[in-house]
Amino acid sequence: MTISKLRQDAIDIFNAGLRAADPKEAVKRHMQRNGHTLMVNEKRYDLRQFDNIYVVGGGKAGASMGMAVEEIFGDLITEGFVTVKYGYRAKLKKIRIHESDHPVPDEAGRRGAEEIVKLAGSAKENDLLLCLISGGGSALLPLPVQGISLSEKQEVTKKLLACGASINEINAVRKHISKIKGGQLARFSYPATLITLILSDVIGNYLDVIASGPTVPDSSTFGDVKEILKRYKIWNEIPDTVKFCVEKGIRGEMPETPKAGEEVFSKSQNVVVGSNIQAVLATETKAREFGYHTMVLSSFIEGETKDVARVHAAIAKEILHSENPVSPPACIISGGETTVTIRGKGKGGRNQEFCLAAAIDIAGLNSVAILSGGTDGTDGPTDAAGALCDGKTVERAKEKKMNIQSYLSDNNSYAFFKNLDDLLITGPTNTNVMDLRLVLVGT
Predict the structure, then answer these.
(1) What confidence category does residue 342 fall into, taking pLDDT thresholds of 50, 70 and 90?
(2) What is the CATH number of domain 23-274?
(3) Residue 161 phi/psi, 5° resolution?
């Protein structure tokens, strides 16, 4: 098996995972309508009891999820407003699609969040509010609490993204400096009936973490926020307004995010319609069709990207050495979401850095190819979903007089793989169920 075949197989297997993460089909699997009867999983609703049906939401998959909702409800929708990342749009009839920035929020996102709060707040007791949530929603729905500006929230977000904090920790902070996150959108919509459809981009599918849980009870506290900011040594680097807000919350001078058991959640239903495991299992099916012996490591992979990459590379070596844990041709699959602690000044993302680190460890292995890509089509602040590497990547870099260690130290994976034409470019996928990593070992 040539390296070129391994690389092409990796791309085809990855694309099978993307197809399995289609948000439109995911919504339809969990929500069906037959005349006046709406079934959401096992729960039945009589649509005749509602005067109005509103749709709101935020996330990279919002447009695709909105397409499914419009096909299900048609003209029954009164009004809708969903915020997506720039470029992740679709043409809808009743739902307005609004674009804003990710991963650092912008003014367009703030305006969109205000529109969503306004629409949710207009829902009355006999109305139905459908909320469409997917990965990226935290950045796409920025609505800072009074006293904190958008630029200050942007500053906090940048520091959190650079310090190595997990998405759970980042979102705990975001929720407590926001008017909309951490269950607070449910406050605005109550006493309307609230159904939230969620495409998960979070390990473990924790509802209060996905898009910072705007419609679900929040388990984190202001005390947790201060502990997180101190643990990552950025407490003294964030704006004083944010520290003041957190301290007020700890003293009980600001309301906490709503918790489990509160009345605002008494008329709500939350449904996870899709997650990383569906994409992982689809890649396994495709790999088997291609004749590979497969092994799914986990859809819960997290940790420092470079460390995770070394483990995956070590498995490739073990397969070649002892045919364990599976014999070649082999395809090792993992999902989840790693983190990068930024120490350099370069440009890249966790998937590109994964391949950069892995390339060093598989150098010289002529029958190994590795792909790592984000299902959302973007990796960090780049236009690439990720990258590919193989046993000849380091050799090809040397021919171009590129020192791979220097690129890794500078977190400059994008430039490295662009120079080798090894970036994984998908364009906007209109979905987001975290990352897929593939290690292919040929015969």
Answers:
(1) very high
(2) 3.40.50.10180
(3) -65, -30
Q: Is 390:369 a contact under the CB 8 Å cutoff?
A: yes
Residue with tokens 């919504």: 27
Q: Do domains 3-14+277-441 and 23-274 have the same CATH topology?
A: no
The CA–CA distances, whole Å, from 2 to 6, 13, 278, 389, 437 equal 6, 16, 29, 14, 20
Q: How far apart are the first and last CA of the chain?
A: 6
10 Å CB burial of residue 242 (0-12, 13-18, 19+) is buried
The CATH superfamily of 3-14+277-441 is: MOFRL domain (3.40.1480.10)
Q: Residue 94's pLDDT band (boundaries 50, 70, 90)?
A: very high
DSSP string spanning 181-215? TTTHHHHHHTTSEEEEEEE--SGGG-TTTGGG-TT
Calculate Rg over the CA atoms of the chain: 22
CA torsion, points 156, 157, 158, 159, in degrees to nearest 10?
50
Q: Does 413 score more than 90 pLDDT?
A: yes
How far is 277 from 298, CA to CA, in rounded Å?
A: 9
Say how many CA atoms lie within 13 Å of 11 toward its Cβ.
14
For residues 53 and 193, the answer to whether their CB atoms sit within 8 Å is: no
Q: What is the pLDDT of residue 121?
A: 97
Read off the pTM: 0.90
Strands (E), 275-329: 293-301
Q: What is the mean pLDDT of residues 348-355?
A: 98
369-to-71, 339, 365, 442 alpha-carbon distances in Å: 41, 22, 9, 9
C-beta of residue 313 within 8 angstroms of C-beta of residue 307: no
pLDDT band at 269 (very low <50, low <70, confident <90, very high): very high
Tokens for 129, please give them: 């509010």
In this structure, how many other beta carbons lie within 10 angstroms of the beta carbon of residue 356? 29
Pair 352, 384: CB distance under 8 Å:
yes
Q: Give me the residue spans of the domains in the chain.
A: 3-14+277-441, 23-274
| pLDDT, position 161 | 87
Q: Give the pLDDT score at 164.
A: 87
Angle at CA 187, nearest 5°, toward 254 and 227?
A: 40
The confidence score (pLDDT) of residue 168 equals 87
